[in-house]
């Protein structure tokens, strides 16, 4: 019996097996639901971000209209003393959803993607006002294609292929099959190719659909490079589980025992492993207390407000031009700016400490994740999709730096009470989030991808060796 004959026979058996066909259809439906859920999430996030930017732009247009009216002489300066007020310049800060946020939601469902760079607000409060989703929704976790691939796909693979060898043994057909000039390994791997190949075909169809469905009006071609990398990760994860199944099958246990071992392996790698890694990370690098950070921020703010008179006096001594008689605006505006900058300087150290602890946790997780293929694959998925915690931290750092740069550009206008012109407003830089380049993403995903491929190769080699030994024993008997 040749490999082609075994493959042909297995295909006919698969077509007649209603249970496995229903399993394939059910998996396809799960993929469709996950893709639809991810597409809706990405679309909603994109709409909310765009609505925020539009709202802030409209407010900026009103500021510009008033300033232009004074500049053109349509309105007398004394009739609108607040026109062109530099302190009221508020620029939107936002980051669009990651390129593949529909495939892997990551942290994008509970982290801020918008902020307002305003000098009325201290840097620690830059992301203070944003909405969370329903706590019930967050507790359930995102149901996206990444979840299906990491947690559901292995279970479906196990059900599809756990009995590729035990079924014939238990029904007494294995001896008849091996009486033909065919090796045990050929039988097992041929059947695995048919059964798991059908499942892989369903996954590929779902991936291709996700490329188009989740684009959300974005040019599909712009998603292709990251999509190919994301798909490669999914396929390697699939290959790893195929190799693990082949390895356990090669032990030649009963069908029940094989199924039990595979389910236990799934629970260990997908449930227990991630929980242990999370606990270890928390033990080594405890989550920094936001209450402590808030307390430090409030203390710095309180000290700045209590000493605002001394702060303003020190500023005027350093800048004699601030004593100019032409300063006609209320003093509280200049004081508010000076106090805000003082608070920003005071909270810089606590914020840096908070971010350093987060960075230490990420570095520890970057090593510990190799103990669990599920965690490793998920982190690589999020990194490729643009929904990782590292990307979120980069956005927050860039937003805070943008606020500091804006403060320096308008400082002289605020301190001297001079109006800003429309031209000066137009000359101010606008925030643009610097997304990680494709080369950087490839560099971060290359090691996990290679590690998963190496694991798959190791388990496949062990499976082939065990099956070869089994075939030799059967021949000898």
Describe the protein:
It is a single chain. With 477 residues, the chain is mostly helical. It has one domain. The protein has 17 helices and two strands. It has a two-stranded antiparallel ribbon with strand order 1-2. The longest helix is centred in the N-terminal third of the chain and has 54 residues, at 18-71.
Give a brief description:
The protein is mainly alpha-helical and 477 residues long.
Total E-strand runs: 2
Mean pLDDT: 84
Overall number of domains = 1
Q: List unreliable stretches of 5+ residues.
A: 129-140
Distance between the termini: 20 Å
> Based on helices, strands and strand pairing, what is the structural class?
mainly alpha
| Number of helical stretches of at least 4 residues | 17
* Strand arrangement, major sheet: 1-2
Strand content: under 5%
């Amino acid at each position: 019996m040749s490999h082609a004959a075994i493959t042909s026979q297995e295909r006919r058996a698969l077509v007649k097996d209603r249970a496995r066909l229903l399993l394939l259809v059910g998996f396809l439906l799960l993929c469709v639901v996950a893709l639809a859920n991810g597409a809706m999430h990405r679309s909603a996030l994109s709409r909310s971000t765009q609505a925020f930017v539009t709202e802030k732009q409209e407010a900026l247009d009103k500021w510009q209209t008033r300033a232009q009216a004074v500049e053109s002489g349509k309105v007398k300066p004394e009739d609108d003393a607040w026109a062109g007020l530099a302190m009221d310049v508020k620029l939107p800060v936002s980051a669009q959803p990651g390129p593949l946020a529909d495939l892997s939601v990551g942290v994008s469902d509970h982290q801020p993607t918008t902020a307002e760079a305003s000098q009325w607000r201290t840097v620690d409060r830059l992301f203070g006002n944003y909405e969370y989703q329903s706590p019930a929704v967050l507790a359930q976790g995102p149901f996206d294609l990444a979840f299906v691939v990491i947690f559901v796909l292995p279970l479906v693979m196990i059900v599809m292929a756990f009995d590729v060898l035990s079924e014939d043994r238990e029904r007494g057909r294995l001896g008849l099959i091996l009486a033909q000039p065919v090796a045990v390994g050929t039988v097992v791997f041929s059947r695995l190719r048919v059964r798991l190949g059908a499942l892989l075909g369903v996954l590929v169809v779902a991936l291709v659909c996700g490329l188009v469905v989740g684009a959300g009006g974005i040019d599909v071609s712009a998603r292709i490079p990251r999509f190919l990398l994301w798909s490669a990760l999914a396929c390697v994860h699939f290959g790893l589980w195929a190799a693990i199944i082949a390895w356990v099958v090669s032990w030649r246990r009963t069908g029940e025992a094989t199924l039990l071992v595979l389910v236990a392996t799934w629970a260990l790698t997908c449930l227990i492993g991630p929980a242990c890694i999370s606990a270890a990370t928390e033990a080594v690098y405890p989550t920094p207390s936001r209450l402590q950070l808030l307390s430090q921020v409030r203390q710095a703010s309180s000290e700045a407000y209590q000493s605002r008179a001394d702060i303003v006096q020190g500023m005027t001594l350093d800048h004699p031009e601030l004593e100019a008689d032409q300063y006609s605006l209320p003093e509280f505006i200049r004081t508010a700016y000076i106090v805000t900058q003082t608070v920003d300087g005071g909270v810089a150290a606590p914020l840096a400490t908070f971010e350093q602890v987060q960075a230490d946790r990420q570095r520890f997780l970057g090593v510990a994740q190799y103990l669990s293929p599920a965690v490793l694959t998920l982190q690589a998925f999020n990194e490729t999709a643009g929904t990782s915690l590292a990307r979120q931290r980069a956005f927050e750092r860039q937003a805070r730096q943008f606020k500091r740069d804006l403060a320096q550009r308008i400082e002289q206008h605020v301190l001297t009470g001079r109006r800003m012109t429309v031209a000066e407003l137009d000359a101010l830089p606008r925030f643009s989030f610097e997304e990680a380049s494709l080369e950087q993403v490839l560099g971060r995903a290359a090691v996990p991808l290679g590690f998963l491929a190496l694991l798959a190769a190791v388990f496949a080699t062990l499976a082939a060796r065990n099956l070869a030994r089994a075939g030799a024993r059967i021949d000898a008997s």
